[in-house]
Specification:
With 325 residues, the chain is an alpha+beta fold. The chain has helices spanning 111-123, 128-137, 140-148, 162-180, 186-195, 200-203, 214-218, 221-234, 241-252, 269-294; strands at 15-29, 35-42, 47-52, 68-78, 81-91, 204-205, 211-212. The strands form two sheets. Strands 1-2-3-5-4 form a five-stranded mixed barrel. It has a two-stranded antiparallel ribbon with strand order 6-7. A hairpin with a 2-residue loop joins strand 4 and strand 5.
């Protein structure tokens, strides 16, 4: 891995020469009729818009999403937001010894620790049908893809291993709810938690940039997950129909509202617990990331977040409590 200053460590006026991966690139025309490149560039720490005003004609055909480039430029402010002014840009070459993996953000949690935690969750399921179902779905390549997939393109847990991290957070929340409310069928709820976003392994692409696959756009992860559960259950002898229907309901209702793309709304204790746990994990992570992205810029509030429908307060770090007697 090469050494360079991270995007989230740069401030207005800072100059740099760094490698980035392109997440968006389009030619546009300024008000004076002059063409320019409108881009988005990212490293593992952040993504920023970028503008190239001069000397890009010779390489513009090679500047596509997922392409690695070396950029010399500076950080400037436009309409209250940071952006990159590109002075020079070139395509990365083999001798640069960089790969797309160097620019994709990753979970801060150790992967092996999360895998052990996930396997322990499967091992805790005592219902033989649900346990067998989980072992069938999370096997080999399926599990490897699940562990690498981000939970989203940009909003929450949008980094490599993010889906695994998000799922484990929900398991912990649902485990607590099962203790507080013994009426909840824990095996059913935890199985639904482990499977609810499995379809994101086919909905999202994450090799060079995070984006939606054609199948993801046409079908969506909720339906993909339900289809996989239906197929796997059909291979298990005497899998109870009622159990399967309740499990499918957990998956199909986990986004809570029809307008949020859930085919049905939660109608069981387990379904409402999963929906709320999913919301808590996703929004806490998304809000935390938004605050972290702007915490060192001297602002007291983040920019307006359309998915949150608000800007967020950036508090000063609270002093640690005095531990002396």
């Amino acid at each position: 891995m090469f050494n360079q200053k991270k995007l989230n460590e740069l401030s207005v006026g800072d100059e740099f020469a760094s490698f980035f991966i392109i997440t968006k690139c389009e030619t546009k025309t300024a008000k004076n009729g002059k063409p320019f490149l409108n881009m988005e560039l990212r490293d593992q720490s952040a993504l920023l818009p970028a503008k190239v005003w001069n000397k890009f004609e010779d390489i513009v055909d090679g500047l596509k999403e997922g392409t690695i480039v070396k950029v010399a430029g500076s950080i400037e402010e436009f309409n209250g937001a940071l952006q990159i002014r590109v002075d020079k840009i070139r395509l990365a070459v083999k001798d640069d010894n960089v790969s797309s993996d160097d620019f994709l953000p990753k979970s801060r949690r150790p992967l092996n620790e999360m895998i052990d935690e996930f396997n322990a969750a499967i091992g805790s399921i005592s219902n033989q049908y649900l346990h067998t179902l989980l072992k069938k779905i999370f096997n080999g390549d399926n599990f490897n893809k699940f562990c690498r997939t981000p939970a989203g393109k940009a909003w929450h847990h949008a980094y490599i291993h993010g889906l695994l991290e998000h799922t484990l957070e929900i398991v912990k929340i649902c485990d607590l709810m099962s203790v507080l409310h013994p009426e909840i069928k824990r095996d059913l709820l935890i199985t639904g938690t482990l499977l609810h976003d499995f379809g994101k392994t086919e909905e999202l692409t994450y090799e060079n940039v995070f984006d939606y696959t054609d199948k993801g756009k046409l079908v969506g992860h909720i339906v993909i997950s339900a289809i996989e559960v239906e197929k796997a259950a059909a291979t298990i002898t005497d899998f109870p129909t009622e159990l399967k229907n309740q499990l499918l309901h957990l998956i199909l209702s986990h986004q809570g509202k029809l307008e949020f793309a859930s085919p049905v709304e939660p109608k069981t204790l387990e379904a409402i617990a999963l929906y709320q746990a999913d919301e808590l994990s996703a929004k806490t992570n998304a809000y935390k990331s938004a605050i972290e992205a702007e915490k060192n810029k001297g602002n007291k509030w983040t920019k307006f977040l359309y998915l949150a429908n608000t800007s967020l307060y950036i508090p000063d770090d609270l002093p640690e409590e005095d531990q002396t007697d």
